[in-house]
Amino acid sequence: MKKIILSTILFVVTISINAQTIFGKWHSKNDETGNVDSVIEVYEKNGKAFAKIIEIKNPERKNAVCVLCEGKDKNKPILGLNILTGLEKDDDEWSGGKILDPRNGKIYKCYIKLEHANKLKIRGYIGFALLGKTAYWERAE
Hints:
InterPro entries: DUF2147 (IPR019223). This is DUF2147 domain-containing protein. It holds the Pfam family DUF2147. The chain has one helix at about 1-20, and strands at about 25-30, 35-45, 50-55, 80-90, 95-100, 105-115, 120-125, 130-140. The protein has an 8-stranded antiparallel beta barrel. It has a single domain, classed as Lipocalin. It is mostly beta strands. The chain has 1 helix and 8 strands.
């Protein structure tokens, strides 16, 4: 009986800890329709946060390429594209990196912050954080 109780407690604690992180899979919504259009995976590499598109929901867009991107990302498939690069943890935010918007090919400075276990705030901006746009991703199950 003690083993079952201990195992249950350990399981609940593990789930709670994992839910309190920016890392994992997130749903990104289309601003115009409000529908989930992709799944983004946020991962850690060398102490920094990165993200890539791992699923595109619209079957007609699965083979889309980033025609508006510049440089090394020009005409790369959007599926698998790294859109978030080099964010470092700063208290309860991750900042100092960049985010690519494959819809317009533009790269913005950004920061991300976990609002709660299942909601991630992403702020992309040019120059100052006041001049930008905020999006919210919801954790994918």
